[in-house]
UniProtKB/TrEMBL annotation, chains A, B, C, D:
GO molecular function, one term: metalloendopeptidase activity
Protein name (record): Germination protease
HAMAP family per record: Germination_prot (MF_00626)
GO biological process, one term: spore germination
Family to which the UniProt record says this protein belongs: Belongs to the peptidase A25 family.
NCBIfam families hit by this protein: GPR
Reported function: Initiates the rapid degradation of small, acid-soluble proteins during spore germination.
Enzyme class: hydrolase
Known partners and oligomeric status: Homotetramer.
Amino acid sequence: MKDLDLKKFDVRTDLALEAKELAEKPGTGPIPGIQSNTEEEDGITVTMLHVQNEQGSQAIGRMVGHYVTIEVPGLRDGDTKLQDRVTTKFAQHFEAFLQRLQIPKTARVLIVGLGNWNVTPDALGPLVVENIMVTRHFFELMPDQVAPGYRPVSAVAPGVLGITGIESSEIVQGIVDRSKPDLIIAIDALASKALERVNTTIQIADTGIHPGSGIGNKRKGLTKEILGVPVIAIGVPTVVYASTIVNNTFELMRNHLEAQKGDTNQIFGLLNQMEDNERLQLVREVLSPIGHDLLVTPKEVDEFIEDIANIIASGLNASLHEAVDSSNVAAYTH
Amino acid sequence: MKDLDLKKFDVRTDLALEAKELAEKPGTGPIPGIQSNTEEEDGITVTMLHVQNEQGSQAIGRMVGHYVTIEVPGLRDGDTKLQDRVTTKFAQHFEAFLQRLQIPKTARVLIVGLGNWNVTPDALGPLVVENIMVTRHFFELMPDQVAPGYRPVSAVAPGVLGITGIESSEIVQGIVDRSKPDLIIAIDALASKALERVNTTIQIADTGIHPGSGIGNKRKGLTKEILGVPVIAIGVPTVVYASTIVNNTFELMRNHLEAQKGDTNQIFGLLNQMEDNERLQLVREVLSPIGHDLLVTPKEVDEFIEDIANIIASGLNASLHEAVDSSNVAAYTH
Amino acid sequence: MKDLDLKKFDVRTDLALEAKELAEKPGTGPIPGIQSNTEEEDGITVTMLHVQNEQGSQAIGRMVGHYVTIEVPGLRDGDTKLQDRVTTKFAQHFEAFLQRLQIPKTARVLIVGLGNWNVTPDALGPLVVENIMVTRHFFELMPDQVAPGYRPVSAVAPGVLGITGIESSEIVQGIVDRSKPDLIIAIDALASKALERVNTTIQIADTGIHPGSGIGNKRKGLTKEILGVPVIAIGVPTVVYASTIVNNTFELMRNHLEAQKGDTNQIFGLLNQMEDNERLQLVREVLSPIGHDLLVTPKEVDEFIEDIANIIASGLNASLHEAVDSSNVAAYTH
Amino acid sequence: MKDLDLKKFDVRTDLALEAKELAEKPGTGPIPGIQSNTEEEDGITVTMLHVQNEQGSQAIGRMVGHYVTIEVPGLRDGDTKLQDRVTTKFAQHFEAFLQRLQIPKTARVLIVGLGNWNVTPDALGPLVVENIMVTRHFFELMPDQVAPGYRPVSAVAPGVLGITGIESSEIVQGIVDRSKPDLIIAIDALASKALERVNTTIQIADTGIHPGSGIGNKRKGLTKEILGVPVIAIGVPTVVYASTIVNNTFELMRNHLEAQKGDTNQIFGLLNQMEDNERLQLVREVLSPIGHDLLVTPKEVDEFIEDIANIIASGLNASLHEAVDSSNVAAYTH
């Protein structure tokens, strides 16, 4: 496959859904090679996106593969019943990935929690790992005594380059060589272009993790090509660039005023006619030199991250072990 | 004194410096009743602002009193030598407050760390309290054995309403009634209108803490009127509203383009002619209903907050105890 | 009431149950003024102890009042079903205290979490406070909108003398003066004389907290006499002195060998004939000068403390609010 | 080399110094094959122990190699000047190991922090790793720009079996295969037989880490034989068995009374004539069935562990990088 021209897609989002939104032009039809379907139910919006071929891949700057995005704006209210429903929904969609990839029920799974546990918005991966039900050692040490309905699951948080001095992908490769899993699930914090998606959205993808994605330093990626086994990536946007907040808001304002008054050219002047990317460039030009173009996260990040890490861990525990009841998965984490 | 019309000043900043910036119109002279003086030295900018009378107070929406703002953009780089210089500078300016208020060297001091220790951007106050050198109990239990050069210092973190069920001001009043300090120093996390000031700025004020300021729930305030003893407030902006990021950026873009090209009306259309507050209203109208107008904080908030809490604690330890060497204050905290 | 001669009872236990055990001599009958009853059910042993009068009080060195001790050795295994049963049992016995003290269902309650959150075995009180459902502010701010089945509950963690410079009892008094509760519940970490009771035992007492009890610095106590409202004390032993481990083990060895072989004089020599306190003195004489007589806690203290704090918080939430279902209280904390 | 009969040496200590103490019989000369030398200076006692051959190894149950033990009872007082002196002393002795093993100044070093970060007394390794100055990534990414006086250092905390499901030795092997260090430094929490050594003692050994040592689950060990490069082990005792406290105290009591009164047979009866191991067996027999024989740690473990982790990290930073000044190493950690 040809390398993607990442510059072109440098809109600072790790969500395939947002990449597609950015690639769509008003008035034109669907993007060839991209199939997409959205369902909404009781406050949970699920978008299934299929990048079918290279044409689609080049159009939105994402690898060929399946992407599922679960958006739940209400997650910010700390409603435990909603959290339980999201857990169940996440588990269902995750299981569909296992089936599509034909992962057997006894396949050995390694869960990799990427990110830095000392930086709250980057700590999603390590937090999920803390709540995973690991079982591999029981299979190694006393295989005859493991109850039916479980599979060998292991979990590691390899840290980040600035703390270990070693690429996290190198560490993962070393662990894979030794522990020989059949499937890797990599969890990572992401960047979004929209503040309202931060800490309210989960993306599942069968493409692995590619260089440059995620908010940390993951230059080498975690993919089937590199590691030899399939890699399912689970990501949650936890940060957004100040410049994309500004640019995104401009778009929202234009839509808002267009609906109300009609002539947005008069209101917004030349800004109105700029391409999205062009305008973003302008915003960055202004913000970057004075240190304004920071990655930011909502004030309540500590609680949001913990809630969503629990959802993912509970959902994985239920999906990976048949013996864990999918209807009451939350009880298995704390 | 008349009540301030807070609506008018609802630009969502707790910094007097920013309130003044917002009140100044280009082309008009200095604001009557406001005296201001700014010094810059080696990356540290200090602004001394004096709200001299009610006229000044009404103009910028701040209480009559002295405000010192220390801005250090370089603090984000984690440079320990710069941190030491800021500590010394902060201690000098804090000592000037003690002198102006004629606080004797033996006066008993209570340090109040406001905020919620479970919410990182709101944990500044509790973090400072953790690193304060408390001595009051030595004076109570063995007054003859306390070495010269110390004064009685106590420190509490009263929590926030949502966690205790009691207004923090009520808790502080109860503690003041019992422990009878001569001076209160209240530390709190603030909101700024400019992202680059977040976690890089310290404000000292002799006005106490007034209802509605700070990012938590402090409806009743901590003032000399309420508590019976002077209250020095120390604040650090740790959050900013998404809407003020957008509005502030618009201003920056206009200045940037004006310098380059001249006619910003053409570029910005009607937006260009709006008053700052009017435009902010528009931004909020668009962002609030869809959950975009969150308070946000930089991704690295954990480290930034810890660094600046150490600076304040070290500076206070040096200012309050003569026996603590002002040239090497950092060694007393960890 | 006469002052208790604490020296006489200086066996370094805060549990009334252990004080009684120490006061009992083999071969003599029950202690006058002490009524005691023990029940065991499914791994949970509950002892109800009533110090009926001054005679009983002097005999075991505890204040007149009711003491309930819940012992659950199995708590160390992290069994969540057992934890739920203990929560229910604790709630039942706590409600009996509320009834005996004739606390009305609308009485306002202040929960005080004593201890130091930076020292794990002393952090029980603050940990319970973190998981208490506080409601007082709803009653203050919007009394008409509070659903039936709740009462006003507030909760504070006043810190310890070494961190605040103020006696925790002074802080609590100040808060009581301002917030005017009808009942205080004080939670504290205790010392036991038996390692197996550490982190597996909960004591409830209607006597308040007296000087010298608990593992921190609480010289002034929290009692009805001082605070003007009833005080129920809840304590969990989290530490034990090395010297009492040794002394207690000696006793266990003697009983063990007596059962097996008969003549323990031959085996233990003079040690065998020493009084318990005399032997403890000898052990301390040997250990103290060389720094061996430390307070110790089991290695897994972090997890044990968290589990038992959750049990207490869940039990209190169920006991204090009728609307919280006693059969499923655990869901209200995290 | 023959396998060591570990049962024989099952006195539950990981310190070679204590193993030697246990092997020594009063009245007999030095143990053949063991060379030992002790120096005391200003509250710091350093014992250099050389297990010279298999005879010595079998006698004390430790591998052939060099062991240095630094004992500092005063560390419990939190004296920062003493901490600095211990850091310097530790760095000196650690450098002697580097020289004896002929590790060149440019050799690449991997630091492995064993243990569980959720269990305070087992968190020493991960805490040291947090404060290590890692540099390997600079050498990988921009080798020309690294200042002189540094070497490539990386650091990982592989977690424990119960959390990852993978043996920590497997994880380390995988990382070694990928990152190819020339030397490994493994840090681990240990068990001691003497409470006063807990959190006050540092052991350095050139033998690596062997199965069964340490307080966690490290069945496979980290040795030159397994990993292909030299392994220096650094350990700090952070826990002690209740049974060894009792047994050790008995020994102390006997010595104490012997000095005073002479006939300890009369006082201690048959206990007096038991072999140390025999008596320990008796103590365990009594304590184990009733859940008393726990591993315990001093109440103040949080602070002690943090202090000693800082000493080790600072000492390693100074020893490994010439550019880090050995006289002021503490400034490089926090």
